[in-house]
Amino acid sequence: MNSVQGLLAASVISIQNSCFTYPACQNCFSRLILDSRRFSCLKCGCTGEAKDASYRYRLSLKIADTNDLFDVTVFGSCLDPFFGVTAENLQRYIQDFNQLSAETNTEASTRALVQAVETCFIGKRFIFGV
């Protein structure tokens, strides 16, 4: 799963998702199911308190090399340098911002984050391990 089969130099054409972090199981990295107090992993059965859930990056991109278009998803801590913080800290910053600004509609903060990510990635060329 983590072995790189080859490298692909390509430019980012678009961002395919607007949620760049997800609550992740510490055992298998699958998305956790969260309710107000607990989390559970449907894949491995791990459970715990919602406040203890860890977050991980997931960035879905449409990329192009000189010949083809590809849909790729980049996971995990390799995105820390691009965001400047871990996924867990970014998630905390977003939650804190929404609470401090009394945002009942989180659409504004989500839109601002998406715009920043688009500015940083779209039109830029990267080498992807595939």
UniProtKB/TrEMBL annotation:
Keyword list, A-Z: DNA-binding, Metal-binding, Zinc, Zinc-finger
Gene Ontology, cellular component aspect: cytoplasm; nucleus
GO molecular function term, any single one: zinc ion binding
UniProt keyword annotation of DNA-binding present: yes
Any Pfam family: Rep_fac-A_C
Keyword check for DNA-binding: yes
CDD domains found in the cross-reference section: RPA1_DBD_C
Ranges annotated as spanning the membrane: none
Domain of life: Eukaryota
A biological process term (GO) from this entry: negative regulation of intrinsic apoptotic signaling pathway in response to DNA damage
Matching InterPro entries: DDIAS, Euk_RPA1_DBD_C, NA-bd_OB-fold, Rep_factor-A_C
Domain Replication factor A C-terminal: 9-104
Family: Belongs to the replication factor A protein 1 family.
Protein name in the entry: DDIAS protein
Gene: Ddias
